[in-house]
Amino acid sequence: MSDTTSKPAWMLRSLLEIPEVLHAVLLSRDGLMQARTEEISKDEADTYSAAMSGLASLCQDPIFSGGAHNPWLQTMIEFDSRYVFAIRAGAGAYLGVSTTAAVDIAAISRRMQELVGQIGHEMAVADRQGFGYHG
After folding, report:
1. Lower CB count within 10 Å: N or C terminus of the chain?
2. pTM of the model
3. Which Pfam families match (predicted)?
4. Backbone phi, then psi, for 51, in 5-degree steps?
């Protein structure tokens, strides 16, 4: 099963119903692309996943979060013509979405949270063994 026809990829397509969403990617905590919408190539999705993993890791640093009792939930980065959103999406997984600057920020944020709330268990990604990831 390919990364655009798997069950998680099928679920990601619902995000494209929000106007101005460009693509969505499900990735593992260690930056491996797990599923993607067809609007992003596999090579671009692999690069995107590695970058999103690094971003999520940075956001979870205690310097930014204030410590273990204040876990990271989501991030939005604004560019001149785009937004990038990242959200925790089940155990060991993150959901990344890119949009144009014309997107309804509240609508896409809400839809991402709803999707994760409804099917986060389907998005969970097991940690790879031997790489030091625990929890």
Report:
1. C
2. 0.83
3. Robl_LC7
4. -65, -45
